[in-house]
Amino acid sequence: MALLPIIWAPDPILKTTSKPVEAVDDSLRQLMDDMLETMYKAPGIGLAAPQVGVNRRVIVMDVSREGDDEHPAPLAMANPKVVWSSDASKVFEEGCLSLPDMFAEVERPADVKVEYIDRDGKLRTLDADGVLAVCVQHEIDHLDGVLFVDHISALKRNMILRKMVKAKKSRDDKSVL
Question: How far apart are the C-alpha atoms of 147 and 149, rounded to whole Å?
Fold first, then answer.
């Protein structure tokens, strides 16, 4: 397995719609494993392929906690799509590995049903609520070029993105040294 570099916003790849996965093969499973390792190291609870520079519809997640039997862990999904969402919504504070140390409250459907292809190439369905529902919607958004800041007011979004530009410049300046 290998750690992959996480792309920070603003970056054009994060605003691009990802291409569907044609088939689950060993190279895709390797990507999923590398993404999980990268996500755990970051640390985070979800990661989408565009965040590591790969324009494919692949996400990984692990929202489990020690002693938590309710949430399957970890999850690796190809071509995930929300096929049903509840009318009820919930507000959660979200963050993102591509916007480190930036957080905002985002309103999303409280419950969703997601269809996806698992790492063995089988079509699966996942019923999600709570933090799992938030995480899967957040990661699927990445596949459509949408960041969590796209769900908040323009004023808050612009403040966060300005901070990210400064943070990115500072990180890039340090890497040159």
Answer: 5
